[in-house]
Amino acid sequence: MKEYLYHGSPYKYDILIPSQAFDIGFEAGCQLAVYATSNRNMALCFALGCVADSEKEVERTMMPEYGDKMLFKNGHPNYGGKGYLYKLDKSKFTHAMGTQWVCYEEIIPEEIIEIQVNDYLDLCVVI
User: How many C-beta atoms surround the C-beta of residue 9 within 10 A?
Assistant: First the structure.
């Protein structure tokens, strides 16, 4: 049976292309790669987008102590918008750490699921 991973984005793409990630907490989160996770809710958090606050600041984080929630310190989810959950072939990925996996080449999603951001606001905390 084929296994899948998930990638979330506020943007719709036919092909996911590796990009440089920046994770201040973990070196494994700073690779030039397509990131995916085995945790569907974690991917959905990234599909919610991030809109800057009035000072044009954006800061959001996911840490194990928050559970399956995105914490927005500056900015907020894209209220009323759409997001996209990508279902990806796990065999194309290498394990990075925890539930994070990386692919170092372009990947075509097996499925793209459009979501309504407001249906998943329970997955975020705005402070």
Answer: 17
Longest dimension (CA), the chain: 49
Structure tokens at 59: 């800061």
Count of all residues that appear for the chain in the document: 127
Asked whether 117 and 83 are in contact (CB, 8 A), the reply is yes
Q: Per residue in 30-82, pLDDT tens?
A: 678 999 999 999 999 999 999 998 888 888 888 777 788 999 988 999 999 99
Q: What is the pLDDT of residues 103-117, one digit of tens each?
A: 999 999 999 999 999
Strand partners, 84: 9, 114
Per DSSP, the residues of the chain read ---EEEEEESS--SSB--EE---SS-GGG--EEEEEES-HHHHHHHHT--B--TTS--EEE--GGG-S-EEEEESB--TT-EEEEEEEEGGG-EEEETTEEEESS-B--SEEEEEEGGGGGGGEEE-
